[in-house]
Every structure is written in C-alpha cells, then in structure tokens.
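#struct-pred

JT: dropping the chains for the assembly here, can someone run the whole complex?
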Amino acid sequence: MSDEATGWTRRQAMRLGLAAGLGISAGGLLVPRAYADEPKRGGSIRAANYTSSTKDTLDPAHANNSTDYARLFMFYNGLTVFDEQLNPLPDLATSVESSDAKVWTVKLRKGVMFHDGSPFTADDVVFSLERHKDPKNSSVVAPIARQFEEIKTTAEDEIRITLSAPNSELPTILAIYQFVIVKNGTTDFNKGIGTGPFLCKEFSPGVRSLGVRNPNYFHSGKPYLDQVTFLGIPDNAARVNALLSGDIELAGAINPHSTRDVKAAKGFEVFESKSGSYTDLIMHLDAPDTGNPDFIMAMKYLQDREKIKSSVFLDYAAIGNDQPIDPTNPYYSPELAQRAFDPDKAKFHLKKANISGARLVCSPAPTGSVDMAVILQNAAQGIGFNLELQRVPADGFWSNYWLKSPFTYGNVNPRPSANILLTLFFQSTAPWNESHWKDEKFDKLLVDARAQTDVTKRKAMYADMQRMINEEAGIGIPVFISGIDAHTSRLKGLRAVPTGGMMGFNFAQNVWLDG
Amino acid sequence: MADASAATGSGTIRVSASHSVVLGLILRRTGLSLLLLLTVSIVVFAGTELLPGDVAQIVLGQSATPDALAGLRLTLHLDQPAWHRYFTWLFGLLTLNPGESLVNNMPVADLVGGRLGNSLLLASLTTLVTVPLALLIGITAAVWRGSPYDRTVNLLTVAAVSVPEFLFATSAVLIFAVHLHWLPALSYAADADSFSGLLRSFALPVGTLAVAIFPQMARMTRAALISTLGSSYIEMAVLKGVRPVRLILRHALPNALGPIANAIALSLSFLLGGIVVVESVFNYPGLAKLMVDAVSTRDMPLVQACAMIFCSGYLLLVLTADIVAILSNPRLRYR
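RK: done, full complex below.
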C-alpha cells in the first residue's frame, strides 16, 4: 500500500461518492467493475453468528457485539461505510469535507426514505449523532461522540459538525457501527425503522431477526436477496453442523479447528478475513515484577509467535510485533524490526531482572489465551523459569481479572482506525490502558496525528508510536487473529473487511445466491 | 380418574370416611408443597444476592462511572434492606409481575412467556412419545421377565441411560442432518408451519430427550411391577384363574402405580430445566437457555423468575405423583 493510498483515497472516495450520487451506478460502490460474477436477484438466506442473548438490541447506541452490528447494517445506514481497505465511502452522505479538519460539512443524499415512508433529512442525522452525547442514552460510543462539539443543520440536505479539536479521521468515525442513522425522535428502537437494505419483519432478542428486502433501497439494485434471517447460535459445533446440514447458508466466527470439517464437505467454503483483532499478554508497569522492564522484555522474547500462529490458530493469523497496528492497516509500519522467539535473550533479561517465577492468569474468555499461556509456559520451562498458570473461568473474567490482575491476557476487537485503537487502549488516561503505560510524548503524538493533514508526516508519526509501544509498553502481541466464516458455495459476493468477519458485518446487502 | 369411580362404586359409609382421609392427605401434601415453595423463594432470592459483586457494578461492566452506578443502585432499589426487597419481589411474583429485565428493560413476564411456551411444547411432545412407550416396554419386560426380550430391553436401556445426551444429540445431528440430510440440525418452533414440518423440526430434539429419560421410566416401571407380581395376592389371583392381561392391568398395575408415577414425574421434571444441552445443540429457544443467558448477563429478575418456574414445575410434578400414589393406594382408599 503506497502512502498515497492511505489519505488520498479518502478524498478520492469522497469525490467518487459525489459522482455516485449524481447517477453512476450507486450499487457498484462496493463492487469493483472487474468482479467476475454478476450478482443475481432473489432468494433468501439464513445466517448465524456466535452471540445472541436477551441483550440483543436494535438501538445503535447500545450495540456492542457482532450480532448487533450485523443487524444494524441490515436495517440502517451510516453516513459513510468502509470498503475492504477501511476507506470510508459515502453512504447516506454524499461528501464529508473540511479544510481544517475541525469544521466539517456533510452533504446528504437526497430522495432517501425511511422504512415507514418518511423522508430522510438533516434533522435525522443531527438527532442520530446528538443522542450519543446524552448520558441518559448511555451510548457505548459516548467517548468518541464527545468531540462533536456542535452538530447543526445548515440546509435540508447539509449539516455542519464542529469538532472540539481537529480530527482528520471524521469520515472514518462516521462509519462506526453505532453512528448509523435513525429517525428523528425515535424512542422505541425495536421496530428497526431505518433507511437500510432490509425491512425489519421480526426482532426476537436471543432468538432471531428477520429482514425482508426494502424495495425502495437507495442503492439501486441492492439488496440482492429477498430475505435474510439472522440467528445467534452460541455453540460452535451447532453452528457448523447447521451449515453443513443446509439449515443456514452462512456461519460466522467459526473455530479454526472446524475449518477442516467445512473443507472436507462438498459445496462449502471457508472465508478468512484478516483483521486487527489480537489477544495480548498484559504486564502492569506499576506492579512489582511485571513492572520490571527486563521482565517485560523477557516475556516478549519468550513468545513463540510461529508456533502460536500455526498450532493455536492453524495459520488463520498473522505474526504480530508487540504493537497493536496490524498489517492490513494503512498505518502499519513495516520498518519496525520483527521481534523473534529468542529464549537466550529472554534468559539474559530474566537474569538481569533477578526474577525466578511468576503467576499468569489465563481464561477461555480472551480467544486462545489458555493455549498461548501453555506455549509460553513450555518456553519458560526450557530456560528454567517457573511460570505458574492460573486458569479462571470465562464467566466473570472481564470484570474480575482483565485490567485488575497484573499479569494476564486481554483480547481486543478490530477497531476502524489506528487512532481510535490507540486512543482507547494506549493513551495515558485511557480507561482500557491495559499495562498502565504512561508517556506524554506518545499522548502528544496521538493528538497531533489527528490534526496532521499531511499523509506522509502522519504515517511517520504512527510509525513512531508503534515503535514506542513495541519497546516500552507492557503489552505482548504475538499474532493478529483472522476472522473465519464458513458458507455454502452458492453464496457469492463476500469480501473481507478488516473490521471483522462477515464483511465487517455488512454482508446482508452485498451477497447473493448463485444457482 | 378410574380409581375414583372404582372407589364410589363400592360401598357407601366406608367410602365417605376414606374420602376425608384421602382429602386430608392431599391437602396436607399440597400445603407442604406451598411451604416448600416459599422456602425455595427465600433460597433463590438469597442465592442471587450472594452472587459475587455488586449487581449494579456487574450490569454496567467496564463502562461504570460512579454517577451511573449510584443511579442504577437507586433504580434497582439496592439502597433498601434485603428483606424489604424480598417482600416486594414476592408480592410481584404472586401478582404475576416479576419485574423488568435489567438488561433490556422488557417485562420479565414477556421474556419468559414465549420461552415457557416453547419449553412446554418440547416437554409435552417428549412426554407424549416417552410415557406410553416407557410404560409399554416396562410392563412387557416385567411380564416376560427373564426372557431374551427382557434381557435385550435391559441391555439397551442401560446403554441408553449411560450415553450423555450431548454425545447422543451431536451424533444424531451428524448422522441425520449433516450426512443424510433427512432432518434439520436446528429446531425452532415457529418454523413448523405444517404437521410434517413440526415432526421434522422436532424429531431430533424429542428423540434425544426421549433417549435421555425413557430408559429410567421403563426400568422403574419394570421394577415396580415385578415387585408387585411377586406378592402373595397376585399368586392368589393366578391360582384363582385370572387371565394374564386382567391380572396385570386390574390386579398388579394399580399397586405399582405409585412408584411408577414418581419415576415419571422425576424424569419429566428434567424436561423443564435440565435440557440446556439439548436447547444449545439444536438452538431451541427454550427456558433453560434463557436462564443461562440471564446468569451470564447478571439479569437478576430474570434469573429469579426462571429459577422459580423450574422449582414450581418440579414441585408440581412431584406433588402430582404423590397425589396419584395416594389415590391409587387401595389401603388408603378402602379404610
């Protein structure tokens, strides 16, 4: 990926969107022209992901898991939407522009209707964005929405967003799931009234959601399917069996070990989405032992990254380098030297730290952490270091151990942009600053990077931040984990979006059935 | 109610006296169950109070701020003493208003209502299949005890009872759904729009549950009947020349009914709450899965409501079995 591609595609995308709004196939926005298979209309599918409970919601402010996200994209649209390189393309907006990255003008698509027939206007956008700032709505993206200092209707099809500080990533932020647009004044979200590709026919929390094709969808030609049923099947084996027996057409988030069954069966395919998701070793910098820089370095050298990649994730992963920006990200810095598995160096550092043993908390809750801990324990045994494992159940792990235990694992879902990820997990004041790493220089870089409009300079800043985390933070990131879905071969049109499996959960309007 | 008509058919004075004895026994038994239910409600309430951590803290999770915590504690009435909250909750239960879900603010009654219907549907279909089959096999095995047929039944029921249901369920899905494509791997009540559709979508879960509970029922039926068949009044009847069918149905079975009813009740009570594995494997939206959801999201009102439903269901079944045992016991009927 060239330097140009990262920042300029955004501008180009915005212009492309303008053209699309003027009449060049809007349906083709996400489908490159050279795509071999022509989409077919008709048919219905059932898709299942792994989480579903009474907590399921259609309120964008409360959506916090993959099943919620998939439903949001069935019934609503955002102002922008991600493509496969995480560039924000226009969706309900036709352009998002600013000269100083602080005051933004958003032009809106005309002639769009909500499912109940009412027209989509600037007031709906203002309502949808403003409500995340209201503490009463306890929005999960409130910390991000706080920077929208003022959101104002300037014309029937135009709004102005004034940010509290310059942020060149606003088009990216607007593509985040929770910022999808709802109707002005909505209080009951269970009907799922949006502008999206499917009309909500049934929403039963913890059971299923049923969408039927929206005939008035503004991307002409889309969606291709007449009906999508979305289920949650928490049990991996049940999900895979349901796919193989023909009860569902798409199974999300399957276990790497199930890919063998899917590949062995005729007429089914495995679909890998490289992503920035990772399970990380956490060492608190302000605790005894784990706060020792030599101990941290030793643990980083003791990660057998190749083994973790091949045996825990069956190669559905990419090697990590103890910093959170993955190779699919436009800001990934390939210059940073890869840290290798090196027991000798680990031994040297442990000797220097003068620590002979440690107790590591692992749990099934952070994906793969128990297996990763066992691999680490074996490596530690090899150099005579006594690593004790404390296995705790998944239930309660996130509230009782994560962020509390000084030596444990965490798991981070892919975030839409490097800046959001670093702000949530590495800024000194971030509540999820897992290793309690505090660095003023880093904080300044992070804020400055938002305002920096020059792409080359911005990339250099992100490279600096990656190096700082790699060297100083108490975080070990051995691999980045791919999302794995499985589907019947008849289902076409899936393309990998790095925010997560199932096309970044936006599969419903982009897939079709062949034959 | 064949027993009642049989009772009224014989004698006048004795019957009215025995009626009051039987009635007294039933009333006492019912009162005991209600008392037990009240105790259970205290245990359930105390149990959910004892779950680790402040409920408000758990509900809000990582995003908890002191303000939000204080606000939620007030909404949950956590500022009031436990006994006060217990009586408010108990009163709500008695007026069929078990409160609101903490997670999605829907009334618990609504959440439970649909799921309870699904669970009852699955349970009654399974009952319809298993009870007659278990009785038939248990009785025939008792009649021809020691025969090759009896030995085969014994072997098969022991084998079936020893296979855990998750293994059976998963194997059945692999064979009948994944490889043969005869039956769907998922089961969802609303998908069954025709009778054949209903049969297809319920075949695997009902089959799995039947295999799980049928052997116990059949074996208990056989054992109860055999012990009755060994008693001297049966020998007397045989000597008197009573025909085999009449001997079993009229003479032996009524006396064996008590233990059989107990065995059936215990097996059926498993169908309400103990089938979370089957619900998970077939993704069936029943009550057991709802409760597991509720525990993992720390949705206390929902957990309490589910627990109370399971306990009441269990007590109701055991009570019914006891009443059947009382009514079918000739020693109590004719005294």
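JT: nice. The interface with chain A takes residues 52-53, 57-58, 61-63, 67-68, 101, 103-104, 106, 111, 114, 170, 173-174, 177-178, 181, 184-186, 188, 280-283, 285, 289-290, 293-297, 299, 302 of chain B (CB under 8 Å). The two ends of chain B are 19 Å apart (CA to CA).
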